[in-house]
Design brief:
binds iron/sulfur cluster; six-stranded mixed beta sheet; disordered C terminus; alpha/beta; 651 residues; single chain; disordered N terminus; Rossmann fold; 23 strands
């Protein structure tokens, strides 16, 4: 078991809500060797103080925000595991405690609860792994942590940390930022801090006094960091999932991709080390091994590599998934993939237009692509094909050609269509002005205009692709009342506005709330209660600005909530868009962002003109029995029958 998961919890008892929450929770786990927690009882709350023996470096990775109320899965803090492993191997654990913040907490707590949980560790330095889906939330959290404890230092790393991403680097919550590969930079920073010396001349390390650090040379041998699983820092049994990186760097130079600029060369994990990781996966009951390598078949020894994967999975106890280029996949290679137990692979097509391929520095050989995809399909491997809308040079006509090409040739099992993201650290980011690319200034950095595509055209093409290819973009789960449950963190609250003179007092404490939170409101007349609803929404989003917030309105009469009131509530909810709001804002169809308005309507009123009118602004959730809102507890679906969606966040 990883040491971050081997000790006991202590936790504040939940405050009362109308859900009747039970008084139990699970809080931060203590690694062995750390001094015992100090527990103190303050009325209904138990507080935990963790007393580090040495300065504590806490490594945190926030998840992709959930689109609905379902628990987050797959937020494996692999980068944090690498850092701890390097610190261990370089002898730095004599000077520092280095801990990985438990993924289960990182993936479930709301913003305020996260800050409280992190502060309970009393960290000296908090390191965050930043991806486009978590960087804004990370910065918000970093500012909150530093406001509460000005002596605490913050280090950022990950793909969002690039010299051309000034809005991140200059945020007041940042002390240090590792540009490029982070492990060696992290080690040298800890060494400098341990020595009490200056940190100003570390390659790859951005500080306020070193805004242009010398470039960091990447690791030449990935055995140095392989792997946090084998050293017990991460446990693949947690999600029966093992993330395995056997190569860093890519021989291709696609201009939309982060790899070419960040990893100029290639570095490998040795075959014995790969085998050790896979044997571990089998022992821990892993069901899927996801290979993170940029392009699996860029290896010259690809056939031998597949034989190694097959050898480690003789009994086919787990499946493999990875990304590769379809070009060059022969029937015999496809057979080796199948023998290893690849059940699905992802391949990029991106665009069929030669001008676009030239501009993105990625040449597609369509004959070879077709042969490769067909060989894999014939071998029984599913092929997920990626297309990008918004590439420079592409026009509505060439994008349609790409869609029709896939469709007519039957060259896929599934298709993912992405809007181009002009990512930091990529050639496209560098050349955006020259190429005439306009894009969102904050993640996901979606392109908004190219010389040959307007935003309206891209939106229509996304819609067209959805219908033509029979796909649905990241549809959030259907809403349903959660009902009473005793989970911690607290996932929802039901408040009867007619009965509660002070609704704000009925909310569970922010320190106990989950990132995905459902507020279920009941009232006879929501128009009259509009100020109270607005106050609740502003209060919740003030404390947890990056929450996934589901607002359920259950009127006791029909019509019990007007379009004007829903409009005002939506305006308050989307006043400060988060990542998920921006992500969904350019997707056609039924989605709307991190905030969702849902009106519970008795079955008999579903076809009432009022319901049609408010369906422009909220999801309509019909209830089978009037007045029965079917709260059956977290995890039990209710009678949701059909849902319509329309309200949108600003782009
Ligand atoms: S998109 Fe894929 S093939 Fe292209 S540079 Fe990136 S990792 Fe390599």
């Amino acid at each position: 078991m990883p040491d971050t998961q081997s000790a006991l919890y202590a936790h504040p008892v939940c405050g009362s809500t109308s859900l009747g929450l039970a008084s139990q929770w699970a809080g931060p786990q203590l690694p062995p060797g750390r001094a015992a927690p100090t527990l103190a009882q303050h009325g209904a709350h138990v507080t935990l103080a963790i007393m580090p023996n040495k300065p504590l470096v806490l490594l945190v990775q926030l998840p992709i925000p959930p689109a609905g109320m379902e628990p987050v899965r797959g937020n494996v803090p692999l980068a944090a595991g690498y850092l701890k492993l390097m610190a261990q191997r370089r002898g730095l654990l004599a000077q520092f405690d280095v801990e990985v913040f438990p993924a289960r907490l990182a993936s479930s707590l709301g913003d305020t609860a996260l800050a409280e949980a992190i502060l309970r560790y009393r960290p000296y330095l908090v390191g965050f792994t930043c991806y486009l889906w978590n960087v804004e939330r990370t910065l918000c959290l970093a500012r909150r942590l530093k406001a509460r404890d000005p002596s605490l230092a913050v280090l950022l790393g990950g793909p969002e940390i690039a010299a051309d991403n000034a809005w991140v680097l200059h945020d007041e919550g940042v002390d240090y930022a590792a540009i490029g590969e982070g492990e060696q930079t992290f080690i040298e920073l800890l060494q400098a801090l341990a020595a009490g010396g200056p940190v100003g001349h570390i390659a790859g390390l951005w500080t306020r006094s070193q805004a242009q650090p010398p470039p960091r040379r990447t690791l030449s041998n990935l055995d140095e960091i392989s792997s946090p699983y084998l050293e017990g820092i991460l446990d693949a049994a947690d999600e029966q999932l093992l993330l395995l990186e056997t190569v860093r760097g890519c021989v291709f130079k696609c201009k939309f991709c982060y790899y070419p600029k960040s990893y100029p060369g290639l570095a490998y994990v040795s075959p014995p080390r790969i085998l050790a990781n896979l044997q571990y996966a089998a022992e821990r009951g892993v069901r899927e091994v996801v290979l993170l390598d940029p392009t699996l078949n860029q290896r010259r020894d690809f056939a031998e590599f597949l034989a190694l994967l097959a050898q480690a999975n003789e009994r086919q106890t787990f499946t493999y998934f990875g990304e590769l280029r379809a070009e060059g996949i022969t029937p015999s290679i496809a057979e080796l993939l199948r023998r290893a137990n690849f059940t699905e692979v992802e391949v990029g097509l991106q665009s069929v237009a030669s001008e676009t391929q030239h501009l993105m520095a990625r040449k597609n050989h369509l004959r070879a692509f077709e042969q490769g995809v067909r060989a894999m399909l014939r071998a029984g491997i599913k092929v997920k094909v990626d297309l990008i809308i918004g590439l420079p040079g592409d026009t509505p006509k060439t994008i349609r050609q790409g869609l029709h090409y896939l469709q007519n040739e039957g060259l896929y099992s599934s298709v993912q269509v992405f809007q181009l993201a002009v990512l930091p650290g990529t050639a496209f980011r560098n050349e955006a002005g020259m190429l005439g690319l306009q894009y969102q200034s904050r993640p996901p950095y979606y392109v908004l205009q190219t010389p040959t595509l307007s935003l309206a055209e891209m939106y229509d093409l996304m819609d067209e692709a959805q219908s033509a290819l029979g796909i649905e973009y990241d549809a959030p789960p259907e809403p349903r009342p959660l009902g009473p449950c005793s989970d911690w963190p607290v996932r929802g609250a039901t408040i009867d506005l007619d009965a509660q003179p002070d609704p704000l007092a009925q909310l569970p404490a922010a320190a106990d709330r989950a990132q995905a939170f459902q507020l279920h409101l009941q009232a006879s007349d929501f128009d009259r209660m509009r100020p109270a609803v607005l106050a609740l929404v502003k209060h919740l989003l003030g404390e947890d600005p990056h929450a996934t917030l589901e607002l359920l309105f259950e009127p006791r009469s029909t019509p019990g909530i007007s379009a004007e009131t829903l409009d005002a509530i939506a305006a308050a909810a989307f006043a400060s868009p988060s990542y998920l709001d921006r992500f969904y804002s350019l997707l056609p169809g039924s989605t709307r962002g991190a905030k969702r308005l849902v009106v519970l309507v008795p079955q008999m009123a579903v076809h009432h003109p009022w319901a049609d009118e408010i369906a422009e602004l909220a999801d309509i959730l019909p209830l089978a029995v009037p007045g029965q809102n079917a709260m059956q507890g977290c995890g039990t679906p209710t009678q949701a029958q059909s849902v319509t969606h329309t309200a949108r966040a600003p782009a």
